[in-house]
Predict the structure.
Amino acid sequence: MDYRFKLALRMLTNKKGSLIGAILAIAIGILVISIITVVLVGLQNAIIRDLGDYRFSDIVISDKKGYIELSEPYLMGWFEQFADVDSVSPRMTGFGDVEIRRNGHLVELFQTPITGIDPNKDHQVSKLFETVIDGEYVTTRNSVVVGAYVAEDLGGIEIGEALDVTVTNRFDEDSIAHFVVTGITQSRGGNGLDNQLIVHIETLRELLSREGETGQFLVKLNVPSSAPLIQEEFLTTFSHEDFNAETVTEAGQESIDKLNSVLGMFTLIGYVGLMSSSFAVVTIQIMLVSSKTREIGIMRSIGEKRSNILIIFVIQGAVIGVMGAVTGLIFGIGFTAYADYSKFSFLGGLILDVEYSWDSLLTTAFMAFCLALGASIYPALKATKLQPLEAMKSV
């Protein structure tokens, strides 16, 4: 082993307390960035997962002008020709005013979103039915499932209560329907339809006077990765129509963009914290220079080159950087594993979809190493400027 490396290690081991402090400062900086990345990327993945489970499935088809007029069996049959397509189901959306009488008092809620689903097919493309926390999913034409937020706004609705919904149809006329509440839905993180009413699609079509039309088609795939290919084939086949076909990632792009901006901001803060940890390296290096002034003087008096003195202290910075980076990697992987195993939740109980981002971890560890190495330059240069005689006299 090179004598300069041995000497660098010996100097470091003589200052174990400072060495451990510097290593931990770097490791904690890496851990902070890892926590930020795991939480925010996990949130992004979880939101996309839930949007796919509840709102968009793997591909969502809509019409840029409003409603799809092509027949439901025809479009569903087109998708079902692909082996990768598991199932297809229609949905309809609209708005309505809700009225309910509770304890003799009229409670009203205006412009409430309404989603119409096909009870026989929707469970094949969506997990929305799993969000029903009380009662059961939509089964009949006059049944309604109420989102948790709507139920709260209506004063705490109960299963079996009756409510009236008024919808303005395509002819600007009011259509009124009477419903019986059969279920209440609530999703973790609120990515389901917690702020809506869920009814039978045929009932909503009648209220809107849109018989034979559809708002959206949700397409569930056996192989989700084939979504872009089927999407492209669909848009090519129906290029003469005003259809819009989006994968779940594209449909949820707005949510992704918001989280990406937050991720970038917090990651920047984390890196600023990591940079501040480099001061711990500077501190221990300066302490070593001060405590080893006599030894440096002796080395210089026997002809040791300044470059070798510089290398010794740079090696110390590299050793601190490597040990801090490795410790930080262990901390980061440990937190990621904990978040994955414990089903770490955030934002109203939304369970994170944890991703082992090795690229991010390794990049952060490498940057921490570079910062530690860079932080050793100033103390190393200071050590090389010591004159032999003055260095020995100063101790």
Observations:
- The chain has a mean pLDDT of 84.
- The two ends are 30 Å apart (CA to CA).
- Residues 318 and 373 are 5 Å apart (CA to CA).
